[in-house]
Design brief:
Chain lengths: 340, 254
Amino acid sequence: MIKVEGLTKRYARTVAVDNISFEVEKGQIVGFLGPNGAGKTTTMRVLTCFLPPTSGTANVAGFDVLENPMEVKKRIGYLPETPPLYLDMAVSEYLSFVGRLKGISSGDIKSRVDDVIGKCALGEVRKKLIGKLSKGFRQRVGIAQAIIHNPDVLILDEPTSGLDPKQIIEIRDLLHALAGDHTIILSTHILSEVEHSCERVIIISQGRLVAIDSVANLTNRLRGSEAVALEVEATAGQPGPGDVQVRLEQVSGVSRVVAKEPKDGRLLFEVESLQGRHIRADLARTVVQAGWNLSELRPVGLSLEDIFLQLTTAEKKAEPAESKDTGKDAPKAVAEGDKK
Amino acid sequence: MKNILLICRKEMRSYFASPIAYAVLALFAFLFGGLAFYPNVKYIVQMGPQAQMQGQAINLNEMVIRPLLGFASTISLFLLPLITMRLFAEEKSSGTMELLLTSPVRDIEIILGKWIGALGLYTSVLAMSALNISFLFMWGKPDWKPVLVAYLGLILQGGCLLAIGAFISSLTRNQIVAGGATFFVCLILYLLSYFTAYNNSLPSQVINYLSIVTHMESFSKGVIDSKDVIFYLSMIFFALFITSRSMESLRWRA
């Protein structure tokens, strides 16, 4: 549905996007991830025919953005970072203006407006001036505006920025509901966003593509070793933390065991495996055979945050050993953060 | 064509939904009615009987309507920046420009729609003066043809300045800057026509010719001079053309 090849966008002095290529298939939700200033918005603006590329091609639904911008524009719904709203218009009035602008005939416009007002839950504010609406409603009007002409491709630039958690969930649900009929690209620098809503992730940093894969693959690929959080119940000081740690270290495939501060008589450990070894079953067996009570055993994955940081910070091509180190340090911090 | 109308309607709507239209209309009504129409007509009414006793008929066209419409032309110079300043600057600062530029609409359709919308407001400003002048038709018998021609001239001159204002508005995202710069340009054009009027050197003749105001003269006399019509139309075309260039550069710079 979307095909980008060797896309480069240069401003007077800076290169905003440097030789990016990717493809997005029909019906997919793709997350466009990167720190601020990475070139996300620029790439989206090229796709929506707002900016012409300096070199390279971008193709949307079979039409080139330079050769056939009118056809591309008809097939794209775009929500820029700041929703393009006329604050002095009422919601329904604004939507019908945008709809007409996107080429909906005057006969169909009313039913289309009613349709998107229903989809985006704007019924209660349809007669209100947009200037009087809260941020969450404005964002929804922005999305309604993007889908009014039922475009093949939806491009959303940070659709959830500045919203409260409840509104974020609502927008996320809305996107899921839309995903079937539309190909969606959404940009964000909030990672949980991508983990929740996207099938694939495109990570760019400083204008360059650093990774493009599915969320699961990306996590797997970068997770060199398995990390497991383990909890053993201790009654009246038995077993001692030392005993357990020694026993765990003897399990084959374990590279490191870190004992943590015991909590309410529960001993906490974090166990890491050697590269490519699965140790959870063996760990469980070892604990149970020793006659201890295993109260928790859970894998600690590398979160997208770690992957993201690994990929986007420090441009140096990390050597295997080095990347393993960072991989080991990162999950603990996150796992603790998650628990709290 | 459909898109031009759509954008034009949107412009008119946002003029009349905001205080701008009413401020411009009220300002014009006050200036035109209070400073030009009332004193002028009062003078004529006082002079009338005296003039008739001396056996001279008062020519309403020459003595009242022509200076009145000349005055309308002058004050519209200073009201036009209020109309054009928001045309593009507002869209740029609020981000709605991105919506227009990513919609299946041609740049020239956006520009023409906005220009015609602005011209619509300007025409309704002129209609306020027509309201005043219609009183003269009720009590006197002026010739209506030169009046119509003068209005045609006013609309052409206004269209010209509106196109220049639209261009200036497309250069900035700040409405105040756009309004101020347009006002400055109008002021210069107005002053130039005075400074160069009695100077016959070649440069001042050229400047005088380019000064938009001077081409109003034949219209206010009730004469449609094709050279002035062509001057106005080509100025409008030129200003709208550079506006479209400026919009295109927005895509490269933005």
